[in-house]
Design brief:
heterodimer, A: 160 residues, mainly alpha, three-stranded mixed β-sheet, 51% helix, B: mainly beta, four-stranded antiparallel β-sheet, 42% strand
């Protein structure tokens, strides 16, 4: 029988355990914003350490930091800019995937916008590697498409 | 058991599943999206993928372009009078979530006696100032007006209008906007001269040209002739965004012959223009084109006369391949003419019974405004109020 998550008083914290075995605390009201976590709390109770197999100790504190700000209503453009300022493209990607796993919608939307901004002027090859996708065009198909869309390559440094 | 996560992480996280990829891709500008079509096959056809298209559309509608910060919507409406009755232009301020509040604004004094066919140039304000124009036979009235402070400034007559007693000008006001380099307000106008008499015009009174471009500058308070060959506007849809005036034309550069429709973009700062042709599938003799600004993007609303409207967003100025079909509106029976777009994906239309309505792109609902308007004479204006004096100086 699933226990009800206790109604959020600011003092109630939930323990989260990352895939690499570290434990972090988060306020219950912040945990509520991450639907995956909330579901696990509903299933397992809020006194148990919630296991998050696909999130690791490098990302979780950052995510917790975001939602800590969120519950106090302090997320501003400046905060968001500062939040991603020192992250490289791969680090943002990991956070993005973690936000997806945690079903943390607000962070997910913010990070997808940030990634879009980072990728805007990138080359085709960079984007392929970034998304981890294979080029399934034949060489003829690809060169034909590049020619048709030549205007979209203007001013862009291609890797090859 | 502790695993060394480093290497395994890298492999596992390298691939982003397609539906997650769409969340990122749907937020990219059109130029990037078109380039990334070369990444893989499924991305070449993004705009034919309904799942992606829905995400792109939702983001497009909900993403508030800074152009609209602090703006309101004005409706410039002209009645459709019964025979014998006069024409009147009426200006309304629309407010409320569903535009349920319509407040009539009074035109400035120069238009009190005759308020017929008043045009609000470029459908926008600059620092709270609107530019109004009226063509009444031989009379060309043009003035700047701040509806919030009621200040107005009449623009002096151009010295080029009546250079010859034998030739009468008609004018086409092509744009009003702001030159940020010189901090100047400008009005762009095309004059076309006709021989009004049957008398042979003496050589010394013959004008070199039968049409010319002129530009008014508030700073110099005068009209200057522009030495330029540029297609003039073929419609009432003229826009101003960031110092560039946009309109569309079906004329060639010397306004002599018909030409395939093209977008003309005139930069008020360096006074040069750029042409963007329309892609061949946009040009059909049966298509009715309407140029508008949709959520900050230049777009054509195209009506193919089967109750279906397509909206094409311009990806890049000057690139005819970059007109991207983003929205399809159907069915909209009895609706023929768009009259402009609002701030969050609302499109205003005139129905064939003259009722003015608005269409919400996100909900696909149509609502009546409660006022009727004459064909080709009703327009939506994006207005941002300001208490600054006209010209700011």
């Amino acid at each position: 029988m699933a226990q009800e998550a206790s109604s959020s008083t600011s003092s109630k914290t939930i323990s989260l355990k990352t895939g690499d075995g570290e434990i972090f605390e988060i306020e219950a009201s912040a945990a509520k914003q991450m639907k995956t976590v909330q579901r696990l709390i509903d299933d397992l109770g809020d006194d148990i350490t919630i296991p998050l197999h696909n999130v690791f100790s490098k990302e979780l504190p950052k995510i917790i930091e975001y939602y800590k700000k969120d519950i106090t209503g302090e997320i501003t453009k400046d905060f968001e800019a500062e939040f991603v300022k020192d992250l490289n493209d791969d680090e943002v990607k990991v956070l993005f995937l973690a936000a997806n796993y945690l079903d943390a919608n607000k962070l997910f939307e913010f990070l997808s916008q940030n990634i879009a901004d980072r990728l805007e002027s990138k080359s085709v090859e960079y984007v392929r590697k970034y998304f981890g996708v294979e080029n399934d065009f034949t060489p003829e198909e690809e060169s034909k498409l590049r020619e048709e869309r030549a205007w979209s390559f203007r001013g862009i440094k291609e890797d090859e | 058991m502790e695993k060394s996560m480093g290497a395994t992480n890298a492999k596992v996280i390298n691939h982003i599943p397609e539906d997650l990829a769409f969340s990122i891709l749907s937020k990219l500008p059109l130029k990037s999206l078109k380039r990334f079509g070369c990444v893989r096959r499924s991305w070449a056809l993004l705009f034919e993928n309904l799942h992606f298209l829905n995400m792109y559309r939702n983001y497009f509608i909900s993403n508030n372009h800074s152009y609209y910060d602090g703006t309101s919507i004005l409706l410039n409406q002209t009645n459709n009078p019964l025979s014998g009755e006069a024409f009147h232009s009426t200006l309304y301020l629309l407010s409320g979530e569903r535009f349920e509040n319509m407040v009539k604004l009074d035109w400035p004094p120069p238009f009190h006696e005759d308020d017929s066919f008043i045009e609000i140039l470029s459908k926008t304000s600059v620092n709270g100032t609107l530019c109004l124009a009226q063509k009444n036979g031989m009379d060309l009235k043009c003035l700047f007006w701040n509806p919030t402070t009621d200040e107005f400034k009449i623009i002096p007559s151009s010295p080029f209008l009546y250079q010859s007693p034998y030739m009468e000008p008609t004018a086409n006001f092509n744009g009003f906007g702001y030159d940020h380099v010189r901090d100047d307000y400008k009005v762009l106008r095309w004059l076309c001269f006709f021989n009004i008499t049957d008398v042979e015009v003496p050589l010394e009174d013959y004008l070199d040209v039968d049409s010319m471009w002129e530009i008014y500058s508030l700073r110099s308070n005068s009209w200057t002739k522009l030495d330029i060959e540029m297609p003039a506007s073929a419609s009432n849809e003229k826009l101003h965004v960031d110092g560039v005036c946009h309109w569309w034309s079906i004329y060639d550069d010397i306004n002599c012959y018909d030409s395939p429709p093209r977008l003309v973009s005139f930069d008020l700062c360096n006074e040069v223009f750029l042409t963007t042709h329309l892609s061949s599938d946009m040009i059909d003799p049966l298509n009715i084109l309407h140029l508008t600004l949709l959520n900050g993007f230049i777009a054509f609303i195209i009506y193919d006369q089967t109750t279906t409207f397509h909206i094409r967003i311009l990806g890049e100025l000057g690139v005819k391949e970059s007109w991207t079909k983003v929205f399809i509106l159907e069915p909209l029976p009895s609706i023929e003419h768009p009259i402009g777009a609002g701030r969050k994906g609302e499109i205003f239309f005139r129905k064939d019974d003259d009722e003015l309505v608005w269409f919400d792109l996100s909900t696909q609902m149509i609502e009546e405004l409660g006022v009727k308007g004459r064909e080709h004479c009703c327009h939506i204006v994006i207005y941002k109020d300001s208490l600054l004096p006209i010209g700011g100086f």
